[in-house]
């Protein structure tokens, strides 16, 4: 139509015709322009299809949903889903949170690059400036350096790390829990963080550095020190500004970096000397530190302080999480003790088989001198052995699933977003996943999802480290936890060592069992544990 009018104007040789047609053309063009603009603006905001997110009604007198949620998280989430559908807003932990439910939205959530976990953490804690004060390089938002360090220098070598992980775990366990007869440990997390911290110190920095007490102490202490530095409570604009200023100039982590630099420097110098002397015959240590030094330029590291700053970031991402889940796992062993015999049986059977295989191999290689060393069962606690323990793997995955906080993994919307079902999420909104709708759904988990069924995943092809919309404890997608392989190996090794040492683990106050099993991450211990050794 517009095109025809324009043709008319150009072909007309009558001045009058032009006079008549110009306003018509202008009017039509303006209408068209207006129509396009309006349609465009509707389209860009998905106005015609988008929906505003309902906010869950507050109980009379309440200003947040915290109390209702804390009373019974599962029931609260289920009620919200039933009354408001898969997307709704709630006021939890001083924040307005948008909750998305179900596996499809969970996938969308993780695959959307405009929903950022790091931005949410920064908004809540102001931690980005703090983190940047630890390193001198790689200070670009969304950089993946620590992810790659784990992907490249930890995951492919898990089998190489296991002997030192197990050795260190055993030593810590022996020194902290000798022969016990219903020995009460009020805060088992304190023991587990030393066990995990010492194991991870050897993975990240090698045994020579990782076994030094001050290094283990740094591995254990840096996350709680970080938590103290950022403090509790609301992070309003001014508090965040103050923290950012403070971190930039006085990072409480400086002392921890110094510990790592002091411990690493002489070892690095010696390694360099040995490499120069031995040339091609030099056997490279397989720890993460060595990987970082060998790829110093690739990762743009500046100096040893910078390398240790990155290692500290890794410690912050790993030790606390793995310790927290390790300690929680002990409550599952205590509560579901009727299943521990089955686990013990499997562990013993696999370890004997593995020990025989190792011995046969040593004899076949003519290395009989090594054979007598493989007497301790834990010598056979290899990655290969853990792979054969299918019941243990299922137990660990089930405990990770069952513990789930019912909403989790808050991300921040970096811009206005419209979900595939039409709901609009405004820029700056914190968005979390409703884990009840994935971790506790029969369609995804099989029968009785609200029950702890330790063998739920046996023969299902779902190992404890396999992420998906049905298992989000390690996140999902490009930024899923790269440490989940070593983390699950650590958890399984811990269970093996505990069951081989203790005939019984009991809760001090069994009435708190439910709270202990579903404990929020890093929350104070709700009840202690009693340990009894095998006679
Ligand atoms: C049971 C123990 C652990 C749990 C439950 C856990 C869970 C998680 C989760 C939920 C994330 C965020 C994923 C996302 O954004 O979608 C994450 C990130 C990360 N985790 Fe773990 N983690 C554990 C242990 C470890 C260990 C042992 C390591 C290192 C060896 C590690 C290294 C990391 C790193 C480097 C990131 C950041 C990834 C990135 O920025 O892309 N984690 N972890």
Automatic annotation (TrEMBL):
<keyword id="KW-0349">Heme</keyword>
<keyword id="KW-0560">Oxidoreductase</keyword>
<feature type="coiled-coil region">
    <location>
        <begin position="333"/>
        <end position="364"/>
    </location>
</feature>
<keyword id="KW-0812">Transmembrane</keyword>
<dbReference type="InterPro" id="IPR017972">
    <property type="entry name" value="Cyt_P450_CS"/>
</dbReference>
<dbReference type="Pfam" id="PF00067">
    <property type="entry name" value="p450"/>
</dbReference>
<dbReference type="GO" id="GO:0020037">
    <property type="term" value="F:heme binding"/>
</dbReference>
<keyword id="KW-0175">Coiled coil</keyword>
<dbReference type="InterPro" id="IPR036396">
    <property type="entry name" value="Cyt_P450_sf"/>
</dbReference>
<protein>
    <recommendedName>
        <fullName>Cytochrome P450</fullName>
    </recommendedName>
</protein>
<dbReference type="GO" id="GO:0005506">
    <property type="term" value="F:iron ion binding"/>
</dbReference>
<keyword id="KW-0472">Membrane</keyword>
<dbReference type="InterPro" id="IPR002403">
    <property type="entry name" value="Cyt_P450_E_grp-IV"/>
</dbReference>
<dbReference type="GO" id="GO:0016705">
    <property type="term" value="F:oxidoreductase activity, acting on paired donors, with incorporation or reduction of molecular oxygen"/>
</dbReference>
<dbReference type="GO" id="GO:0016020">
    <property type="term" value="C:membrane"/>
</dbReference>
<dbReference type="GO" id="GO:0004497">
    <property type="term" value="F:monooxygenase activity"/>
</dbReference>
<feature type="binding site" description="axial binding residue">
    <location>
        <position position="481"/>
    </location>
    <ligand>
        <name>heme</name>
    </ligand>
</feature>
<keyword id="KW-0503">Monooxygenase</keyword>
<keyword id="KW-0479">Metal-binding</keyword>
<keyword id="KW-0408">Iron</keyword>
<comment type="similarity">
    <text>Belongs to the cytochrome P450 family.</text>
</comment>
<keyword id="KW-1133">Transmembrane helix</keyword>
<dbReference type="InterPro" id="IPR001128">
    <property type="entry name" value="Cyt_P450"/>
</dbReference>
